[in-house]
Amino acid sequence: MAGSGSEEVKILGGWPSPFVMRPRIALNIKSVKYYLLEETFGSKSELLLKSNPIYKKIPVMIHGDKPICESMIIVQYIDDVWASAGHSIIPSDPYDASIARFWATYIDDKFFPSLMGIAKSKDAEEKKAAIEQAIAAFGILEEAYQKTSKGKDFFGEEKIGYIDIAFGCYIGWIRVTEKMNGIKLFDETKVPGLTKWAEKFCADETVKSVMPETDALMEFAKKIFGSKPPPSN
């Protein structure tokens, strides 16, 4: 075991960050008590700089006196340390686990940049191209959901799993992007599986307390990022 499950747990981050949501959901799944230490946007605390001296980014989980960085690495750590609590987040089958990691990487490397591309677009032509890329990514993820869910509610089948956490953390920002740009990405006629999945994901008890309200998130986006989603952390 990587560490003692009884040691104090702290998360360095901020409520609007999709990346900070990931370990918070994982800790909720495992029923682990933690303290969220809010970082002020635009500045970095001494604790953050000390805990993540390489990237200097949130989230960081401090377990006892051990800092763990990068959101999905933290999720894996939580699943390992509290293996006997809650349900397993990463599939026990090695092949299924590799598939879950593949799609989590796709979500961060392909889907999230397409979402940011909408906000970063400088004119109508760029925005149209970015929206098309996002819609295409949604189509690919719809196919992935149909295969990995095996007819159940989540990518992780009956319960929220690794891919669910990786993708679900973006739901708030997807809704903000839809509202601010007059588009529909969760389109039940084109991605019926993902549309129903998003509703079930947000309604889950492990998610409800950490999923930001769309209006509050949109006000944050306007104030801090303009129309842009938050930078990758």
Can you walk me through this structure?
- This protein is of the alpha+beta class and about 230 residues long.
- The chain has 2 domains: about 70 residues, 3-Layer(aba) Sandwich (Glutaredoxin), CATH 3.40.30; about 130 residues, Glutathione S-transferase Yfyf (Class Pi), Chain A, domain 2, CATH 1.20.1050.10.
- Helices cover about 55% and strands about 5% of the residues.
- α4 runs antiparallel to α5 and α7 packs across α10.
- The longest helix is centred in the middle third of the chain and has 27 residues.
- The radius of gyration is 17 Å and the shape is globular.
- The C terminus is likely disordered.
- Its EC number is 2.5.1.18.
Q: What's the arrangement of secondary structure elements?
A:
Blueprint: E1 9-13, H1 18-29, E2 35-38, H2 46-51, E3 60-63, E4 66-69, H3 71-81, H4 94-120, H5 124-149, H6 162-168, H7 171-181, H8 192-203, H9 205-208, H10 214-225
Helix pairs in contact: 1-3, 4-5, 4-6, 7-10
